[in-house]
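Worked problem 6 (solution included).
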Amino acid sequence: VMLLMWIGASPASTGGGIKTSSLAVAWLNILSIARGKQRMEVFKREISSVSIHRAFAVIILSIFVIFLSISFLSIFEPDKGILNIAFECISAFGTVGLSTGITPHLCGASKMVLIFTMFIGRVNMLTILIALFKKSTTWVGRYPSESILIN
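Solution. The predicted structure is:
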């Protein structure tokens, strides 16, 4: 259930999570790499490298946010079980609404962490980072590309 809450809703919906499209793009990219393809093609369409990078960024940032919220709740609520805390944090990230029943018994700081996690899960951490760090002027030049040996 926690995996489904983490994945969340489809794009353009009111739900949170990493979105089904991000998971699909990441998974299809992994399959394309395993098949030795240079480009990712789906339904006779090529998926842009920007979309692939964004999908992986969303997934990595979501794992970071969930890990951070679980860590904070574990510090603030040492008497609660780690599975209950993880369930609450992942549910908050996916804006699912499910609970193990510990939410009313959390301290104010823990509730603030859950509120922050809900906001990040709904708006998306990548969107927030782009809004904060997007430069108003863009450089039109390009650096030379380089193939890097990965694994």
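Discussion: The chain has one domain: 2-125.
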